[in-house]
Amino acid sequence: MATSRVLITGAAGFLGSHLCDRFIEEGFRVVGMDNLITGDLKNIEHLFKLPEFEFYNADVSQFIHVPGELDYILHFASPASPIDYLKIPIQTLKVGSLGIHNCLGLGMAKGARVLIASTSEVYGDPQVHPQNEDYRGSVNPVGPRGVYDEAKRFQEAMTMAYHTYHGLETRIVRIFNTYGPRMRLNDGRVLPAFIGQALRGEDLTVFGDGSQTRSFCYVDDLIEGIYRLLMSDYAHPVNVGNPDEISIGDFAEEIIKLTGTDQKVIYKPLPQDDPTQRQPDISRAQEILGWKPQVTRQEGLKRTYAYFQSLPQEDLYKKEHKDFAPYVRKPQKENH
Ligand code: UDP
How far apart are the C-alpha atoms of 79 and 39, rounded to whole Å? Predict the structure, then answer.
């Protein structure tokens, strides 16, 4: 039998690049696609020498053409940090909506199974804790995070419609906060923000009073969950995340201890619509995929810190988003 071939959109991003590695390891032929707005070719440059890896520099929101057979399509292209959504809101909406339409159409044409990267953000600022897949969420469609949250909700609806009406094989993973090597140091998310600040000798900026919670999953665990879901026969959404919940204030203290920095915590205003709590209920993933996370936060943070320490010094001072922290809303020019 010929080797299976998989298309991964967002291939040069944090999760996309780890997925490329995993599928190569599993013996697949991998087609990566990325328009490199938030992705970085450095994340996949080690794959370019491999005959089983191809790359298209393309925007999945536009018409996409991939010659040859495809067995699987994984849609992971999207800006993924609140600061990115503010910077490029229309593109965030387009890649979630038009992008998935193109992937599903391609899936129909190729007879490929399509897996989409959905998110805990479909639950918004949740009124139910922990969040299970039946909870329908509390999202502000017109707030700053609405461009991401609603695109992902639309993406789930569109995917389910293709499954129901066209009989396409589809999978939906709801990803909770994930961290690990290849996160962009300056993408504004809390872990790279804190580690970057510690490495630069700056104080750590906690937004609000730090009582809001998140539950952080190490990237290798997430990739394993996604792989198992893709290979399962389950078409409804599945939460994949680590239920080990922590307040952002305590998380800052953990990073201070991990990095050994002398810096302290300073407090900044809480961004609009920042969820007050978040913790995945992973009973479904455990039951259907036999999956649960294996890497403790202590171990995952150690590996991630080692990665950030290994980056060239100048990366620490690339302030891509200096005008946006902490999520000040102002009109921006963008190409769309
Ligand atoms: N946060 C913070 N300081 C920062 C960046 C983020 O206190 O420098 C907080 C943010 O307000 C949120 C949490 O950390 O409550 C997680 O933010 P992130 O952007 O990583 O992801 P989210 O889960 O909000 O999408």
Answer: 9
Length reported for the chain:
336
Q: Which two tokens stand for residue 238?
A: 């599945």
Q: Partners of 173 in the beta sheet?
A: 117, 238
How far is the centre of ligand 1, averaged over its atoms, from the C-alpha of 26 (Å)? Answer: 34
Annotation says 162 is catalytic: no
C-alpha 64 to ligand 1 mean position (Å): 34
271 cis-preceded (ω within 30 degrees of 0): no
Q: Is the pTM of this model over 0.85?
A: yes
Which residue is catalytic, options 148, 162, 179, 218? Answer: 148
DSSP 71: S
Identity of the residue numbered 269: P
Atom of ligand 1 at shortest distance to CA of 194? 8
Closest residue by Cα to atom 24, ligand 1, is 274
For the domain 5-179+217-243+278-294+316-329, what is the CATH code?
Answer: 3.40.50.720
Q: What distance in angstroms lies between residue 166's CA and the mean position of ligand 1's atoms?
A: 39
Q: How many angstroms separate the alpha carbon of residue 189 from the centre of ligand 1?
A: 6
Instruction: Report whether residue 271 contacts ligand 1, using a CB cutoff of 6 Å.
Output: yes
Closest to 8 in 3D by CA, of 65, 83, 75, 78: 75
Quick check: CB of 279 below 6 Å from ligand 1? no
Q: Is 193 in the pocket of ligand 1 (CB under 6 A)?
A: yes
30 backbone dihedrals φ, ψ, rounded to 5°: -115, 130
Question: Is the distance from CB of 71 to CB of 84 less than 8 angstroms?
Answer: no
Full pLDDT tens readout for the chain, 336 residues: 579 999 999 999 999 999 999 999 999 999 999 999 999 999 999 999 999 999 999 999 998 999 999 999 999 999 999 999 889 999 999 999 999 999 999 999 999 999 999 999 999 999 999 999 999 999 999 999 999 999 999 999 999 999 999 999 999 999 999 999 999 998 999 999 999 999 999 999 999 999 999 999 999 999 999 999 999 999 999 999 999 999 999 999 999 999 999 999 999 999 999 999 999 999 999 999 999 999 999 999 999 999 999 999 888 888 664 444 444 344 445 555
